[in-house]
Amino acid sequence: MSLISLNDNLNCSLTTPRVEEVFKEMSRAGFVLAGVVLFLATVTFFIYVDEVLFLRKIMQLPSNRKTRYYFLLGLYPVFSWTSVLGLFVPRASILAQLVAICYLAICVYQFFELIIDYFGGKRKLFDTIGDQGIPIKSVPVGCFLFCFADTAKLTRKNFLRMKKLVLQMALLHPLLMFIAAVLSANGSYKPGKVTLDSAYLYISSLAGISTALAVWGLVMLYRIAKEPLANYHITAKFFSTQVVLILSNVQGMIFILLAGNNVIKCVAPLVTETRGIGKRMRGNDSCLNVAPPIAWSDFCNFYVVRLRCA
Fold first, then answer.
1. What confidence tens digit (pLDDT) does each residue in 105-125 have?
2. Cα–chain-centroid distance for residue 205?
3. 216: which of 110, 172, 179, 187 is 20 to 30 A away, CA to CA?
4. Could you give phi then psi for residue 135, rounded to 5 degrees?
């Protein structure tokens, strides 16, 4: 039984289009939009190159911290270009999504390690904030823990639990996306097909739970570290990372719901019935995934790198 009503009368092709089919059916306005998308994605890449070159000039910056900056700053061009790939090569959209989600999971863990690095290691972290309590009732999971205390003592065991919450996303998300890619090759995974016998429903649910747990662990560490690390502008860096998490998860679900209620029409050739609701709007989704990183790349260029990056 379908959990989202589909309009079976939509004018969709029966197979996922190839690259040449996409460009053959593309209108003049479509070519203009494609050019804009490519331009914006190129801008994110050159902003990233500028940031890397700037970091390489700072000799006193520890190499491990530079590496984490490289990962975090690369989040925006990676999402831009994987979205472009999914837009122009619809049959590679699952692969593009696999790369983007895996990279995002790694970046979330790198941000956790960056906070520890700012303190100078775990030992100095405990020396600095060891007397503070862990705010357990933090979003998004802690809001539902009604039977637990508001805070817990920051012990090495509890700190390890927070770290595991973040680490599981870096391990589980790539595995889930790999399974999705295998099932997609077999025709068993159809993004947007939300039915009780659909692999998409269960993989998406597990990915959502994993993301929520990782964000919970990250938020708890951020809340106890933001005041001691105020000079590192950690709030701006945390916010820039969360924006990508929101765009990559909430945006796709909104499009699925809109397409499921026929608000977004199914228009050939970029969107097909066989690829489900999520792929019906893949062209629109990819365009919107490219534009926001421009502003956020510039934002991170200032806060993550050039403003007290050492």
1. 888 899 999 999 999 988 899
2. 15
3. 179
4. -75, 90
pLDDT tens readout for residues 8-32: 433 455 566 777 777 777 778 878 8
